[in-house]
Design brief:
Elements (H helix, E strand, L loop, with lengths): L1 E6 L2 E4 L4 E9 L4 E9 L6 E7 L5 E3 L7 E6 L4 E6 L8 E9 L5 E3 L3 E6 L1
Parallel strand pairs: 2-11
Antiparallel strand pairs: 1-3, 3-8, 4-5, 4-9, 5-6, 7-8, 9-10, 9-11
Length: 118
């Protein structure tokens, strides 16, 4: 089984920055890509950003383009989400996700809370 552990969440003022980290451990099941999702109170979980493990190809939700950057360090089995120019509407629990190469199984972390005050 793949374990994903997020860190780096917290409270920040609007306009500030945070960097989230997601460390992978456990089984060496091949992952095609990893990403970040978020879920705000009363809303559905939504994709924030994804990155492929091998080629580093990224995609972002329109709401975060130009403000957030996803990156990976394959040697450390870690994915990062640099969040700049944060807005109150970015407040949510952020979840790390990994998608298996074969069969497409999804693995999830437990989440880290990001709160942006106005």
């Amino acid at each position: 089984q793949v374990q994903l552990v997020e860190s780096g969440g917290g409270l920040v003022q609007a306009g500030g920055s945070l960097r989230l980290s997601c460390a992978r451990s456990g089984s060496d099941i091949s992952l095609n890509d990893m990403g970040w999702y978020r879920q705000a109170p009363g809303k559905q979980r939504e994709l924030v950003a994804r990155i492929t493990i091998s080629g580093g190809i990224t995609n972002y939700a329109d709401s975060v383009k130009g403000r957030f950057t996803i990156s990976r360090d394959n040697a450390k089995n870690t994915v990062y989400l640099q969040m700049n120019s944060l807005k109150p509407e970015d407040t949510a629990v952020y979840y790390c996700n990994g998608r298996g190469t074969y069969g497409g199984m999804h693995y999830w972390g437990k989440g880290t809370l990001v709160t942006v005050s106005s």
